[in-house]
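Notebook p. 47: complex prediction with guanosine-5'-diphosphate.
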Amino acid sequence: MKDEKGILFILSGPSGVGKGTVRKELFEQATDLKYSISMTTRNKRPGETDGVDYFYKSREEFENLIEKKQLLEYAQYVNNYYGTPRAYVEETLAAGHDVFLEIEVQGALQVKDNFPEGVFIFLFPPSLEELKNRIVNRGTESSELVINRLKEARKEIEMMGAYDYVVVNDQVEHAVAKVQSIIQSEHLKRERIEKQYKKLLEDEMK
Ligand SMILES: Nc1nc2c(ncn2[C@@H]2O[C@H](COP(=O)(O)OP(=O)(O)O)[C@@H](O)[C@H]2O)c(=O)[nH]1
Ligand SMILES: Nc1ncnc2c1ncn2[C@@H]1O[C@H](COP(=O)(O)OP(=O)(O)O)[C@@H](O)[C@H]1O
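Predicted complex, structure tokens below:
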């Protein structure tokens, strides 16, 4: 076990902005970053795997997890529950690894209450028109669900001010590079703070 706790990174942004795409590319490159797999009651999409993309739960199972306080945060999004397993996040951070959450805004704000030291990143679309194109082109939602997701997107964008960083997802590789530089800067910042703190303690002992 490492001495230092890991850093919690939270990536949010409206549906279809490219969170999943950016996160997958980031994990192709990142070394010591652990992805927290969420729980959801939504149906599995073609190509998704239980325990890889999500842990798929019934509403009853999910409500049981809420009741037993096993979720760090949860939210209802377009008629389904989504939530982050508490034990995985706490244990992984305690073991010194960084943890990466990809969650929507309501949940991110709950995480902020518990982990104010977390690093909150908002992925922003180049335009609302482009956002709509991405959701439609992905082809995973009916037109009614696309409308719901766009309505949700407007509400989510209003909460952007609560985040530490905003990254525009114009091109995937640019967005990934920006997220990586945020991760590096946060580590440097922490090292600097620790050094200054150690020096302060040493000076006091003199
Ligand atoms: N609060 C919360 N939101 C989550 C969690 N997991 C995923 N989400 C978010 O739920 C929303 C819907 O996810 P999903 O159905 O996979 O659709 P997609 O993001 O449009 O591909 C997205 O904004 C996800 O980031 C979670 O554990 N907690
Ligand atoms: N920078 C980008 N430029 C163009 N298309 C993108 C970009 N990022 C993601 N996409 C596409 O947009 C759609 C939505 O991306 P996805 O990662 O599923 O979004 P989210 O997880 O935020 O809902 C996908 O078809 C994806 O291939």
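Notes: Residues 13, 15-21, 134, 137-138, 169, 171-172 surround adenosine-5'-diphosphate (ligand 2) (CB under 6 Å). Residues 8-36+97-205 form a domain with the Rossmann fold fold (CATH 3.40.50.300).
Next step: compare against the earlier run before touching the bench.
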